[in-house]
Write a structure and sequence with these properties.
mainly alpha; 21 helices; 529 residues
Length: 529
C-alpha cells in the first residue's frame, strides 16, 4: 500500500475530508501546495495528493517531488532534531512508495531494495506503524516470488506490531494477507476465517474501501469453490459499496471479477459485457495494469469463441503494456496464450517461437506452474510438428513440474502446520501480554477508585465536620444574641432602677428642706411677731 504520513495539520485535514466530496479536490490541493508557506505543509499536501491519486503514472511524480523536498530539508535541518526526524520519516515513506510501485509493476528486486531501505529508516526513528506497513508490502513481494516462509514471517510480524501500536488498518491488512496465504494453500476454512476477521476490523473502523476489498476476497473464495450464487452475492455487495464511495479502480475490479465468473460459467456474452465496462473505467483512471488485464481477458473470450485473430490483437495489446511496466510474469502468460492461438491457427512455427520465449522467462522466474503450462504447449507444438524428441523432453518436463507442484503442496502443508504453531504461539503471547496490560490497567483503575473513594470519604468527613461547626457556630451566635439581648435587658432594667432611685432622691431633696432652712424660716417668723 502507499504510505500515509499520519501527521496531518488542520488545513490538510480539511482538504482530505473534502477529497471525495468535490471534483475539483485535486485542483484545490495543487493551489494549497502553491500557496504553502512552509515545507512541512508542502510535505503533508503532497502526501495527501499521493494517497488521492489512483493513476500509477501520476502519483509517482508527486512522490518524487516529495522525495526531493525531504532530501533537501534533511541537509538543512540537521541541528533541529524534531524537524530532522519529520523529514527522515517523510523520506522513508517515499522509499516505501517506490518499493510499492516496483512491486505493482513486477520489478521485485527493486521493490525489495526500496522497501528494505524504508524499513531501516522506520526502525531507526522508531516508527513502528510505518515499519509494519513496509513489512506488509515486502510480504506481498515474497508472495509474488512464491517464498511462503518469508511471506508468513512478514505478515505475522506486521500484524503483531500493528496490534501493539493500535494501527487497526494495517492489522486488518495483515490478517487479510494471512487469509490469502491459507487460500493459496487450499485451506479454505482458515482463509475464510481470516478474511472475516479482517472484515470485522474494517467494519469497526468504518473503512468502506477496506470492507469492499475484504468482501471481494471472500467472494473469490466462493469462486474457487465453484459456488456461483454465493460468489456473485459477495461480488455484488463489494461492487455496491465501491459505487457508493466512487472508488473507480475498485468498481473496475468488481466488474472484472463478475465478468470472470460468467466466463467460467460459459456465458461469454455476459463476460464480455462486464470486461468492457471494467476496461472503460481502467482507461478513465489510466491504470495500465488494469487495462492490460482487461485486454488479456477480452482476448480469452475471443479465443473461446474461436476468433483467434481478434484474440491475438488483444493479447498483443496486453503484452505491449506488460513489457512497458516490466511485468515479466504477465509477459510470460501472454506469450503462452498467443502461442496457443497460433497453434489453433496451425501456424506452428510462430507458436513455437512464442512458446520458447515464454519458457525462457518462466525459467528465469522459476514458477513451477508457469513451467508446467509452458512445457504442455511446447509438447503439443512439437508433437504437431512431428518432432518426437523435443515433444518427449517437454512431456518429461511437464511431468517433472507436476511432481514439483505436488511436492510444493506437501511443503505447503508442512509450512501450514508450522505456521499454525508459530501463529498460535505468537497469538498466545499477544493474548498474555494483553491480559497483563489489562491486569495492570485493572489494578491502576482499582487504585484510582480507591483514591477517589478515599478522597470522597475524606471530603465528606470534612464537609460533615464543617457543617457541624457551622451549625454550632450559628447556634452559638443565636445564643450569644439571646444572652446579649438578655444582658441588654438587665442593663436597661438596672438603669431604670438606678434612674428611679436618682429620681426619688431628687424628689426627696426637692421636698425635704434641710434644718438650717427650717431654723432660718422660724427666726423670720419670730421677728415679725
Amino acid at each position: 500500500m502507499k504510505f500515509n504520513l499520519r501527521i496531518v495539520c488542520v488545513a490538510v485535514l480539511f482538504l482530505r475530508i473534502g477529497l471525495h466530496a468535490q471534483d475539483g479536490a485535486m485542483d484545490s490541493l495543487k493551489l494549497a501546495l502553491k500557496n504553502a508557506k512552509h515545507d512541512t505543509i508542502r510535505c503533508h499536501i503532497l502526501n495527501v495528493m499521493i494517497e488521492a491519486e489512483s493513476d500509477d503514472n501520476i502519483w509517482p511524480l508527486y512522490n518524487e517531488q516529495l522525495k526531493k523536498l525531504s532530501e533537501q530539508n534533511l541537509i538543512t535541518s540537521k541541528n533541529n532534531k524534531v524537524l530532522y526526524k519529520f523529514y527522515l520519516r517523510v523520506f522513508g515513506s517515499t522509499l516505501n512508495n517506490i518499493g510499492y510501485l516496483a512491486q505493482v509493476n513486477g520489478d521485485l528486486p527493486r521493490a525489495i531494495e526500496y522497501l528494505d531501505k524504508s524499513m531501516k529508516i522506520q526502525e531507526e526513528i522508531g516508527d513502528k506503524a510505518g515499519y509494519a506497513q513496509s513489512l506488509n508490502n515486502i510480504g506481498i513481494v515474497y508472495h509474488t516470488q512464491g517464498n511462503i516462509s518469508k511471506e508468513l514471517e512478514c505478515f505475522l510480524n506486521s500484524v503483531m506490531i500493528s496490534h501493539e501500536v493500535g494501527d487497526k488498518v494495517s492489522e486488518a491488512n495483515g490478517i487479510n494477507n494471512i487469509g490469502a496465504i491459507y487460500k493459496s494453500m487450499g485451506d479454505i476454512p482458515k482463509a475464510l476465517d481470516y478474511y472475516r476477521q479482517s472484515l470485522k476490523l474494517l467494519e469497526e473502523l468504518g473503512d468502506k474501501k477496506g470492507v469492499a476489498q475484504a468482501i471481494n476476497n471472500i467472494a473469490l473464495i466462493y469462486d474457487d469453490l465453484g459456488d456461483f450464487n454465493k460468489g456473485m452475492e459477495y461480488h455484488l455487495k463489494s461492487l455496491k459499496i465501491r459505487e457508493e464511495i466512487s472508488h473507480k479502480k475498485g468498481i473496475a475490479e468488481s466488474l472484472n471479477n463478475i465478468g470472470y465468473m460468467y466466463f467460467t460459467k460459459g456465458d461469454s456474452e455476459k463476460a464480455m459485457e462486464y470486461y468492457l465496462r471494467a476496461l472503460k473505467i481502467y482507461e478513465d483512471v489510466k491504470s495500465n495494469s488494469g487495462i492490460s488485464s482487461m485486454y488479456g481477458n477480452i482476448g480469452s473470450v475471443y479465443e473461446r469463441k474461436g476468433d483467434f485473430s481478434s484474440a491475438l490483437q488483444y493479447y498483443e495489446k496486453n503484452i505491449k503494456i506488460d513489457e512497458e511496466i516490466g511485468d515479466k510474469h504477465g509477459v510470460s502468460v501472454m506469450l503462452k496464450r498467443m502461442s496457443s492461438s497460433y497453434f489453433h491457427l496451425k501456424d506452428y512455427n510462430k507458436a513455437l517461437q512464442l512458446a520458447l520465449r515464454s519458457m525462457k522467462i518462466s525459467q528465469e522466474l522459476g514458477y513451477p506452474e508457469s513451467l508446467k503450462s509452458g512445457a504442455n504447449i511446447l509438447y503439443k507444438i512439437y508433437k504437431a510438428k512431428g518432432d518426437s524428441k523435443n515433444a518427449f523432453l517437454n512431456y518429461k518436463l511437464f511431468n517433472r513440474m507436476q511432481d514439483s507442484l505436488n511436492n510444493q503442496e506437501i511443503q505447503k502443508a508442512s509450512i501450514r502446520s508450522q505456521f499454525k504453531i508459530e501463529y498460535d504461539r505468537k497469538e498466545k503471547q499477544a493474548r498474555l501480554e494483553q491480559e497483563k496490560k489489562d491486569l495492570i490497567s485493572a489494578e491502576e483503575k482499582q487504585k484510582q477508585i480507591m483514591i477517589r473513594n478515599s478522597f470522597i470519604g475524606g471530603f465528606s468527613m470534612v464537609l460533615i465536620l464543617a457543617i457541624v461547626i457551622l451549625k454550632g457556630f450559628i447556634q452559638n451566635k443565636k445564643k450569644n444574641k439571646v444572652i446579649e439581648a438578655q444582658k441588654l435587658l438587665v442593663e436597661m432594667k438596672q438603669k431604670e432602677i438606678v434612674d428611679s432611685i436618682y429620681y426619688a432622691q431628687r424628689i426627696q431633696k426637692a421636698l425635704m428642706p434641710n434644718e438650717k432652712y427650717f431654723e432660718k424660716t422660724l427666726n423670720k417668723l419670730r421677728i415679725k411677731d
